[in-house]
Amino acid sequence: MTTQYVIATLYAALCIVSFACAKNINITKKQSIYMVSAVLIAGAVLRRYFAQQPLTYHYDIYFFREWGDAIVLLGSKNVYSSGMFLDYPPGYMYVLWLSTLVKNFVGLSHTGRGYTFVIKSPAMAADILSAIIIYYIACKKLDEKTAVFLSRAYTFCPAIIYNSSIWGQIDSWYTLFILLSILFVTENKVVLASVSYAIALITKPQALLFGPVLLFWVISKKDIKVFLKAVVTGLGCIWLMALPFSQTISPFWLIDLYINTFGGYKYFTVNGYNIYMLAGLNFAELGDSVAAAMINPAVIFICFIFCAWSYFRFKNPARNFSTAVVLISVFFSFCTMMHERYLHPAIILAVMAYIYCKNKGWLAVALGFSAANYLNVAGSMHRNILLVDIPVHYSNFTSILTVATTVLALCLACAPQTYNADK
């Protein structure tokens, strides 16, 4: 696993050197547009190259193919009652539906690399769109040279590239809507925030972890109309998106789907490099003990109280992003049943926290999670697909890096100087 160490270290070093050098560079708005355009094109070309290589997470790609074909062949209303294994909610089924239609229209082979590329394309597109959002917001809040740096750093982040173009997973897709939701919260656009969050939630159950951010923001408004508008819009959007896949008008079947999804992996950790990996409990069954059952409720409760306390202490809009980073990183580090990819959104959320409060500590958090997430997903790929034994030092180092970066995020989230860095 030496290659993975080298890639993570080289990326971190390049980011640090580039950020330091950027201080002495002055560019115009027009120049920055040319530069970021070149970055985005290069990022897209690089993703296209990796997406067409033989290495991919075949299990996930197999199910994505089968689900897409099932929707076309059986009809959307019958796919969830067909008896096939399907633990994803309906949100991403629309994307797979379209991918299958494209495959059929073009005449691509069901098992060919062309169809695999089509399946990977939405997540890769989400990478590029996320980089554009970083550039746009950073230009408004910071300056052009920093905007180009941050956009470039995210575009070429090994963890981001690996997830979408090599692994073929959809974390970048739902992360894009989490990002949009929090941005709309920051701009007090309740309807758009609710719609974006609803799309994220009906795409990936892990979006539930970010619910407290919207809850805290709604409470801070002290307006029942804002609360009702958020709830009605969000639930209505979920219901409408689920309706084509439902055999009844009731949306309650979604609750069973989410419960089954969360309860389907009753292990201390599912390749997630966290404190349980450090303890040697990867794929160790939780069992029926009360102590094991209480771990997640206890972590969630403590994290919720901490986030509420830190959120309402400050008025800086960066609190929306810092709270989101704390939520996902604490859950990943200390909750059970975590998969290797769940830390993915923390990277861009930490970048956004820096943009809004200008505290460089959040860049350190973004770098730490970039390295940890990349080493984690690469380790899982080597273990599960390439059947390579992962050295203990590799998983232990990555787990320690993850937990240490989480602690740094906790410290930054509750420190007053974090939100006064621009003064």
Describe the overall structure.
- With 423 residues, the chain is mainly α.
- 71% of the residues lie in helices and 1% in strands.
- The protein has helices at 2-22, 29-51, 58-74, 91-106, 113-141, 144-155, 158-167, 171-186, 190-203, 211-221, 224-242, 253-262, 275-278, 290-311, 318-334, 345-357, 361-384, 392-414; strands spanning 269-270, 338-339.
- A two-stranded parallel ribbon has the order 1-2.
- α3 crosses α4, α10 runs antiparallel to α15 and α16 (345-357) packs antiparallel against α17 (361-384).
- The chain starts with a helix and ends in a 9-residue tail after the last helix.
- 48% of the residues are buried.
What would you say about this model in short?
It contains 18 helices and two strands.
Largest sheet geometry: 2 strands, parallel
**Average pLDDT, all residues:** 94
Beta content = under 5%
| Principal-axes shape call | globular
Low-pLDDT runs: none
Helices, by number, come to 18
Amino- and carboxy-terminal Cα gap: 43 Å
Report the order of strands and helices: HHHHHHHHHHHHEHHHEHHH
- Give the spatial strand order of the biggest sheet: 1-2
Helix content: over 70%
Radius of gyration: 21 Å
Structural class: mainly alpha
The count of DSSP E runs of length 2 or more, i.e. the number of strands, is 2
